[in-house]
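Hi R.,

As promised on Friday, here is the backbone we talked about, encoded as structure tokens. Could you run it through your design pipeline when you get a chance and send me back a sequence?
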């Protein structure tokens, strides 16, 4: 057995409300139907939740913070500032902490980004999804393409230069030319980071029950290859399955996930993963999903939510599910420090992956090949423990 080491720590904060549920969305988001969000009540609950979790992260430093949703930009600047001030009084932040807030272009009021910046937010992830109004309507988005342009202008006015644009492809009625138009529109704004991911039909969504007509497999592959070639030509590096960045602009928070790092999750439905080296355990946490249930649970007790220990036998598979999404893969030392298991325990799967051309080895580094990225599910499945195999 290798020695389990303490990985970097991130903080994930879930703000669950949105204006309207998109038909493809399977996130824990809830339409807010009253006039005002319970911002003050929710921020107080988040801080109380954090307070109860402090013993689980004692002495550790938070490297990144990520506000996800829902639509976090429905929360005003003062609420975000009050929360971050409360966190700083309880937990140490790294000197160069990355603090990201997701924003919907349709919910940005004039001057709000400057308020987020003053609160400590230094990175914005903007849900553009498409620059075609017809596509946005089909996706059920509340914004138009012009709103994205205005939001990016607001980012510039606020001197928030580190931002991501979320862009989807293989949309209803979309061909290669339409997808490339979206890429060109995004590139015109010179985002430091761009997330480019395929629309998928997830269980529990409207689109899963009533699916739209989507591009077939061949057309989807053509869209992906054409768009990827254009992004590479524009100077973006693909460092993860669906993530592209200018040099130095990779999302540190998401990289921590892919490297099997730790993250404390607070807020309705938030998930977490925490390593306890002394106990030799890795624990996954989950908070109550419904906002009102979460608020009631925090008010009624101490630590809320469920805690589940990750069995030693499944840690390698969890690690591979994440690390194999990265184009530069992982090293032997990283695998052993994060799982507490010797990489030799995965020898049969590694040999099979090498033989099939899905994985490449260069010294102590293992990385998916282009073929491995194309058939990532197959590559990851090789590491599934026998007792979990279908």
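Update: got your reply. Pasting your designed sequence below so it's all in one thread:
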């Amino acid at each position: 057995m290798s020695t389990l080491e303490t990985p970097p720590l991130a903080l994930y904060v879930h703000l669950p409300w949105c204006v309207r549920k998109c038909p493809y969305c399977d996130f824990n988001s809830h339409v807010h139907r009253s006039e005002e969000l319970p911002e003050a009540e929710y921020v107080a609950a988040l801080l109380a939740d954090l307070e109860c979790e402090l013993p689980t992260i004692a002495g550790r430093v938070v490297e990144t913070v990520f506000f996800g949703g829902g639509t976090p930009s429905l929360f005003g600047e003062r609420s975000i500032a009050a929360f971050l001030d409360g966190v700083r009084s309880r937990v140490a932040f790294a000197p160069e902490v990355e603090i990201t807030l997701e924003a919907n272009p349709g919910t940005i009021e004039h001057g709000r980004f400057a308020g987020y910046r003053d609160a400590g937010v230094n990175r914005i992830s903007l849900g553009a999804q498409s620059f075609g109004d017809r596509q946005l309507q089909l996706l059920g988005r509340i914004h138009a393409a012009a709103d994205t342009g205005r939001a990016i202008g607001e980012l510039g006015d606020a001197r928030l230069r580190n931002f991501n644009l979320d862009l989807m492809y293989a949309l209803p009625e979309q061909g290669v030319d339409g997808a490339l138009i979206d890429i060109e529109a995004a590139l015109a704004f010179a985002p430091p980071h761009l997330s480019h991911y395929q629309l998928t039909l997830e269980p529990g969504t409207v689109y899963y029950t009533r699916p739209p007509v989507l591009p077939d497999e061949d057309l989807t592959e053509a869209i992906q290859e054409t768009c990827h070639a254009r992004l590479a030509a524009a100077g973006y590096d693909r460092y993860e399955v669906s993530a592209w960045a200018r040099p130095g602009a990779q999302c540190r928070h998401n990289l921590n996930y892919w490297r099997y790092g730790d993250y404390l999750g607070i807020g309705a439905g938030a998930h977490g993963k925490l390593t306890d080296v002394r106990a030799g355990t890795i624990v996954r946490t989950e908070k109550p999903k419904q906002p009102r249930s979460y608020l009631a649970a925090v008010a009624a007790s101490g630590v809320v939510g469920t805690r589940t220990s990750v069995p030693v036998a499944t840690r390698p598979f969890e690690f591979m599910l994440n690390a194999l999404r990265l184009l530069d893969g992982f090293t032997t030392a990283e695998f052993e420090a994060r799982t507490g298991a010797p990489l030799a325990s995965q020898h049969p799967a590694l040999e099979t992956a090498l033989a099939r051309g899905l994985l490449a080895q260069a010294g102590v580094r293992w990385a998916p090949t282009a073929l491995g990225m194309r058939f990532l599910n197959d590559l990851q499945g090789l590491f599934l423990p026998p007792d979990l195999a279908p």
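One thing I noticed while checking it: The mean pLDDT is 94.

Thanks again,
M.
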